[in-house]
Fold each of these.
Amino acid sequence: MSDPFEAAGAVRNTYRQVDWAATAVGPVASWSPALRAAVNLMVRSKIGATLLWGPEFVLLYNEAYLPILAEKHPAALGRPAREVFPEVWPDIQPLLTSVLAGEGTVAIDDFRLLMRRHRMLEESYFTFSYSAVAADDGTIEGVLDIVAETTAQVIGHRRLALLSRLTGRLADLDLDSPHDFLDRALPVLRAATDDLDAVDIHLPGVTPVAPGSGAERTLSVRLAADQPADDGRLIVRRSEHLPDDDAYREFVALLAATLERSLARIRARHSERRSASLEREMSESLQRSLLTAPVQPEHLQVAVRYRPAAEQVQVGGDWYDAFLLPDGCLTVVVGDVTGHDRHAAAAMAQIRNLARGVSYTLQKPPARVLSGLDAAMSGLAVNRYATAVLAQIEQSPEDALRGLRTLRWSNAGHPPPILLHADGTVEVLHSHPETLLGTRWKIGRSDHTATLAPGSSVVFYTDGLIERRDTGLDEGIAGLVGLLTGKQHQTAEQICDVLLGHFGITTEDDIVLAVVHAYAAHGPRPPAFR
């Protein structure tokens, strides 16, 4: 009779050392043809396989099955399955019994079992098929188990899914603070109890929740920051059913790297905001230091306003100015330097001061002043573009007898002034478009005039007052005209308040306003802005 163990490979000697006569299957010489054939087939297989023979389900297995048994081999050979696998017997016994009873093959993918091996009750997964082994007369004598362990694949996929969920929860743009970070990260991690029996994230300034008992299963990983004092820690307690192996440590390291990247984004955002806030404060302070209180000539009230844009937008180069020339003529300038940063604010300061100096020195009409300002910007290398309206309000002796004034202005690519007449009607002081300042083109500029009667007001403004992303300049000017119509009884201060109250709520850019109100010589001076 041939040796059924001849092809058994590494387990051949073990088979021969077993006292089979003392087992439920009996001595080898008494084995049935079905058992001998099944053993011969099984031991030649390169796939993990085991025979569970007779009503006791005595265990016989091949070399490829040894990694599943781990330290249970060689004692497992020839013993009843309930003795070899007492920890999983309640899970597998009903399946084996059904096959032995002729109820058909059982096949299951990724079946979870807590197996006692590697000196622990280990979480394990198997894809297997239980098939009946029958004699020639059809009597079922045992069960053939063809099995592949899928523990690494199942747990690997589970951990990848956790990393994906964590990354998704931390990817939102609105993640703004360490507290937001913890609120997002911890629920995801603490729900993954198969891998993380307990978890906490310790950040400076945040009191950690200790993972609890099981220090031998606790792993702490540094969450590095730019400064060691800002370092955090990811503290996890491994599930008692998982080994402390390289795969687990690499998994925790990946979790820590994901958390670290998110924290780095938060820190970078805070750093950017601190820098932007400091830059904004410096630029706004520069602007406010230059945008001083306007002069108040006889029978004219000048009101001004400066409102910076929303916090997330950097301060820009909007400005106003109102001063008297040596001959007593009031000059009003409203302008806007391109850009939204400290460089724009610095250029604004240069251009504003140049405009003052050129106006005071030349004592010429607005068009000549703007041309002189262009030349000064070019010669002094003020390499910025700017829009501006420069207006002079003058009064001849003849006009003084009638209480009238002449508004004379020139426009360098700026939104047109708005004239509110004493009868409540509104006129947009359109003029032929002329190029903005700083282009270095030698062009002729034009002066324009309008009459400023007692009770009338002229409004100068920057485009931040009326332009929005969803509306154009023409639509904004139309809205401004509608709002001013019938407001002839308002003082310059009141008009500023009305305009800012309506347009300033949703501003996306800095706003500068300058309103000049002419009042009758015999009337009282309107109250000043407080």
Note: The chain is about 35% helix and 25% strand.
Amino acid sequence: MADHTTIKKVAVLGAGNMGAGIAGQVANAGLPVLLLDVTREAAERGKQDLFKRKPAPLMSAAAADLIETGGFDQDLPRLAEADWIVEVVVERLPVKQALFERVERVRRPGSIVSSNTSGIRLSEITAGLPASFAADFCITHFFNPPRYMGLLELIAGPATRPDAVDTLRAFCTVQLGKEVVDARDTPSFIGNRIGILAMLAGVRAAQRHGLTVEQADAVAGKPIGWPGTGVFGLIDLVGLDVLADVARNMQSQLPAGDPAHPLLELPPLLKTLLERGWIGRKAGGGFYRMTADKQREALDLSTLEYRPAQKVDLASAKARGPKDVLAGDDAGARFAADMLGYTLAYTATVASEIAGDVRAIDTAMREGYSWRAGPFELLDEIGLAGFVERLAAAGEPVPALLQKAQATGDGRFYREEADGPEYLGFDGAYHAAPSAAGTLAVADLRRAGKPVLGNASASLWDMGDGVALLEFHTKMNALDEFSVEAMELTLDRVGRDFQALVIGSDAPHFCAGANLKRMLDAARAGDFTFLDGFIDGLQHALMGFKYAPFPVVGAPRGLALGGGCEVLLHCNVLQAHAELNAGLVELRVGLLPAGGGTKEMTLRHLDAGVERGFDLVVGSVTSSSAADARAMRVLTDYCAITMHRRRVLADAKALARRMVGAYAPARPAVVNLPGPAGRAALEARVAPQVEAGKMTAHDAVVASHIAAVMSGGAGGEVTEHDLLRLEREHFLELLRLPPSQARMEHMLATGKPLRN
């Protein structure tokens, strides 16, 4: 991989929603960024807007300190300071070219320049500009919002320096955490070329089969692996005006014979909504809207009037996957077959025109449109033979790429071989699909051999170089008695055969906590002996990690809640994904953290008083980022942050290797705590919130138990094991209470906390 560290400062031209968002993501990565707009005031407004947006573009308020602002007239010469200049102004070719002429006069030779255009082709932008500019220029198409959307489409021209492209690809991958996809210089590139067509196909198919907007979105969501917004909800989110602009741009740029043209002409329904200004959420409504009293309404597609949103009762909306949807025979199944038939056939038709291989297209749709599976992965899932049969039965042409896939004998675009995964190339042959440089996955270890040890809930793997990996693999990686057993076996095995341990997995989430159903069932059965043993075993295992004779590195990404957060609190150091959502949330289910979490939040906040730790536990506060988790002291100063989620395990292994030799376990803590007086002081923090209606009566009960632990019981000199004993005792007391059991049951049934 190219040296991404050569980019040390970035300049962003344009402080609108997207430009400021890109500047914010650069600042999130810890790099200084110069944000310029027409005036200094406009640039500063763009920066300040970052604090108001939701979801938050910044991972911490401190990141904004890395953003300097300025105006084009006064500050454009400062572009000479930047290693990468990214333009994000209005989508008008003359405006972009005029700005780039000015940029070329002041930038440092060899600095990289890019445009964030979503549809203007690179060849059009560079026309008439100097060869020196074209050599350093490419397109970097971020998806909005830049912090949260994983995709970045990278488009190079025939004159672009390869080393510039390699450097930018490496920087955007490692520093900005993006899934960089190389796209060809074609209209709307990959993501929007396919995504816009899919939305328009969905609108026409819904009307053709007489579906309501709710029915269409219910089918075109989880059942087929698309986001819950479906088709109409996604148009509301993106904005009908934006969709129309992209469609018009594609119409003007695509060759006359492109099969997308009939679909790109907006249907009367969409034209009417545009005329009325019903363009989506930003206008107060589109296909859906919220009334003044917060009631959701949907647009009736026949009358074009709003009515209360309706429940969907279609078998296809309850299907477990796209194959099941297409096997159905109701209107929703016919709608899905129509929409997917067009989308997948069109993708196969233009695939070699827009990308270098099918993997790039699948990645673009997963990361840019949040599809669970990309188009070619979807074809493998639903079965290519059946899909082709449906095309033929409908009298539609079968794209040449699908014919090649059928001719291979495998009839698949992806396959697993002894030497690793392969994908079908546009040449009709299979090619190796190795993991990207700097990444490591449990799937790679699984292909190479068997786990060192394991059971139904967890496995221990050999990562190589003396480092072991403990992987949880239950639903949401929830902890149960088998997880605890695996932790205890891991401590023994790593101590004998390895030099370091990493805890992590390929799953989207690190661990959602303890198995709530298992605990509730045991409590209602009166099996408190099991529960006491489970908590005691969890505490013993986590203390084993904390004071192991070898370094233990937590590698979390996604959720690390409750017991999952407690695992992290007992690792020696963390290599965390930047988007870490961690916290001790047990109060929401009427309990307290009893795997050492209450203990750790006590110890980690002693220097400034335990009140801050108490507030975090009682408030069930969760981090919105790894930087936020550092402020909560879930991460310590020694912990590290990885921006790209698929690099977390590799970075964690490297960190573990660096620790070997220099690592020495700490000594268990002994502290002085205030006892009953301290408990009363902590309880006093809760009383006003109960009186104000911000906390409930049972919240106060749970908070009192938390206060008892964090004040050290009777007080005085207290060891970590004393705090663990207090945790266990108070946890079991709470678990016996009907209001706590009611909270647990409600969470299991609804996924939401019960405020009793």
Note: The chain has a mean pLDDT of 96.
Amino acid sequence: MPDRMATVSRHAVRARSICILFVILFIQGCAQLPPRNASSLSYAFDRPEETRLGREVQPHLQNQPSDSGFYIQDTGREAFLQRAALIEAAEQSIDAQYYIWNSDVSGTYLVRRLLVAADRGVRVRLLLDDVNLDGRDSMFAALDRHPNIKISIYNPFVTRSGIGKWLNFVTDFQRLNQRMHNKTFVVDGALGIMGGRNIGDEYFDIHPQMNFRDRDVLIAGPIVADLSANFDAFWNSASSYPISQLEPDAVQEQDLNAQLDQIRATASDITGLTRVPPQNSRSALEYMLQTLSGLIWAEGKLVFDSPSVDAQADADSPQRSAQMLHQLVEQADKNILVESAYLILGDDQLDILRQIRARGVRVSALTNSLASNDLTTNHAGYARRRGAMLANGAELYELRPDAAGCSSWIEMPGFCNNGAVGLHAKSAVFDRKTLYIGSFNINLRSIYLNSETVLVIHGPQLAERLAQDIEAAMAPENSWRVTRDADGQLLWSAGEDQLWTHEPATGFWRRFKSGLFSLLPMEKYL
């Protein structure tokens, strides 16, 4: 009898403990953000002519007063080197806005150089989406204590880590499901970079196993001011919180100098980089002058979505970036070429596809295969709609992880013999005259939920070059073409002699997971 009573008592204690745990987690999940500190409002530096970079750009502007200059960053290596060089050349300001900033070789190196720039008097504003910041609050909070560095977090979780953070996601799903997917970088108001790349090794040709085929644009001229307006809109929005307000006790005063000194001590460490970037203003300026000589000047327009205003509003209307894409689609007469890492069309988009095909516009799209996709769930959303896209007239190509083009796309010695290449670019070409490049995946999340930044360039020279790049990636040695036979069975081909009836280069388990996820109607949230 005593043993039975002891057992009952233990069960009761365990049950009470579980109940208390769930109550605590529920309270954490229901917690509210504090009122935003309005003193964090600030605005972009707008006198580029007072800086060396601005003075170097000025002669080009005199010949092209209304156009902007564009340099497409085709490889991760040059995308990294240009960012690194701009940090070293900066005199007044650096504004960086990113969805992901990894703490790997490239991400850590660039953070260290931002601190060096701040030490010499450059104002640094870093705006990061909160969804990928796990475990790094302390480091960013330490940097934020520097007098010339300010760091804000977009649409933050109330609970900063652990299971409480993800319970917060469940209880505040509508707000937290809207993310800042924008990727912009502006230095001295003179030069800017925008496009598809986050900050991380896999975007800069440094990762040993997986690197992305991606695309950014270096910009000079009037559009740089629009990039700054985009940054200010998000920096000053009610959804952006200073990290000092979210983590007031993340760094003790006595630890601050030690952390910053440790970062400074390793600021010139290039271990893991495949090429030495400029590490002083003179060599950085020389590097950027060579790059500026390759600018192509054309008419352009920057479009960015508004920061979230009403976090609880239903996200059922296409945002500005999606509306611009729709406008370009409707204006196309002959052909549309698309490359999109994640490609998911809803019913409305399928209707648009059917209509433009009916008037004779050819639509060819390149996306990831299951074998090259870094997210099986996202591929499942595409696979759920793949048959409908083919039925409505799209030509579909899926990137091979062993693409022969890797040797020209990924500038990392030896990588293509052992690693896999994936697609992360988000671009489109219309009638080989107009480009659409940015952070916008052609999927429902980009259309309705995330904020995005896109660049429209009306320039046949750049459009033809990008069209040829996309078409080369669609070639059999780089991609599998997806078609259907007379019975509706999907087929993958790489030329006339290679044909598959299931997704190539994948095992049963991965295909099973993709098929299982594709049964779920969750395309909007992928």
Note: The two ends are 56 Å apart (CA to CA).
